[in-house]
Amino acid sequence: MSKSKNKKKTSLDLKNGGLLLEELITSFNGKTNPFRCFTSEQILKATKNFSESQIISSWGYFIWYRGVIEERPVSIKKWSTQNLSSFTEAYRDISVSSQMSGHKNTLKLLGCCLEFDLPALVCEYTEHGPLTRDGGISSGVVLPWRVRLKIAKEIANSVSYLHSAFPETIIHRNINPTNVFIDENWNAKLSDFWFCVAIPEGELYVEDDVKGVIGFVDPDYYWTMKVTEKVDIYSFGVVMLVLLSGRAAVFDGPEEIPMSLNDHVAEVMEKGGFDEIVDKEIWNGLSGDGDLVLRRLQVDAFLRLALRCVRYKRVDPVSSMIEVAKELKLIEKLS
């Protein structure tokens, strides 16, 4: 390697290492679960120089690549420096991911590489990758109802842990299907913690710029810029509706006019409907009338909980993600 390239790598390593340490101190008083530092050579070799053939998923802010390091399959996240509103978000992603990695329903952070303009994340590999916008998987295999319910329950557990396991309540602010990875055993793993913000102890909210994906942003947050637990509860409710309907949060309605899934569900509910919301694939695999009755009980309870999360008509809103996780566990037991 040339001296100039080596000098640049060392400079980036020092800069990124300092900024990451600063983020860790700010967020968690310097406490972190151990993770490795990988070299740029390891990352480039694993991704075949960030080859398109290795892409798992691609977004405006980052690209996920598959790779192999030391005979272990991994997922590698490379940031785009062009679209980030604040580069500190990349360091926050590592900071919070390292704290969350102990939870079984979080995409485990194995380490990072500090030798690029922004640190690349190295995480565990998941067989099915992230969910698509409509709550499916990239292979096109239709997810059965029990898997959709399992995904919702497990992500609710992960978000509940994020909200309650640390001295300050941490709000994700970017809960949507594409941030949920699915492993070979259909276990769900929450990822992408770069929009996370902490609510100081003793406070009910923190004010900050609106962050998130269209269709998943809490309207109250949008208008007040106040971040509370309700921000994640709302987003999670939309994820539940996506899993239930098989539609994206914003989809092409009549005459291909973009339509909000929330608005669609509200319209159907106003007409006293139900079946129009539910993906027909959910009714597959039933062996008799008894199974159908139980499935309808589950699906109805799931929909009612989702509507409470998105505060439909603001009737009996959900108070916490812990409540959501407990209710989903009870719904699962109905089968």
What do you see in this structure?
The relative contact order is 0.10. The protein has 9 helices and 15 strands. It is globular. The protein has 2 domains: 122 residues, 2-Layer Sandwich (Phosphorylase Kinase, domain 1), CATH 3.30.200.20; 205 residues, Orthogonal Bundle (Transferase(Phosphotransferase), domain 1), CATH 1.10.510. The chain is α+β, with helices and mostly antiparallel strands. Keywords: ATP-binding, Nucleotide-binding. This is Protein kinase domain-containing protein. InterPro entries: Kinase-like_dom_sf, Prot_kinase_dom, WAK-like.
Distinctive features:
globular, ATP-binding, 15 strands, single chain, 9 helices, Protein kinase domain-containing protein, Phosphorylase Kinase, domain 1, six-stranded mixed β-sheet, Transferase(Phosphotransferase), domain 1, 335 residues, alpha+beta
Profile the largest sheet: 6 strands, mixed
Could you give me the name of the CATH homologous superfamily of the largest domain?
A: Transferase(Phosphotransferase) domain 1
End-to-end separation in angstroms reads 60 Å
Evaluate the radius of gyration: 21 Å
Number of domains: 2
Task: Give me the side-by-side strand order of the main sheet.
Answer: 1-5-6-4-3-2
Order of helices and strands: HEHEEEHEEEHEEEEEHEHEEHHH
Query: Count the strands?
Result: 15
- Write down the CATH topology of the largest domain: Transferase(Phosphotransferase), domain 1
Helix/strand structural class: alpha+beta
How much helical structure, as a percent, in the residues? 25-40%
Unreliable segments (pLDDT under 50, ≥5 consecutive)? Answer: none
The rough form would be described as globular
Report the total helices: 9
Mean pLDDT: 89
- Give the strand content: 15-25%
The CATH class assignment of the largest domain is: Mainly Alpha
- CATH architecture descriptor name of the largest domain: Orthogonal Bundle
GO molecular function, one term: protein serine/threonine kinase activity
GO biological process, one term: cell surface receptor signaling pathway
Protein name: Protein kinase domain-containing protein
Keywords: ATP-binding, Nucleotide-binding
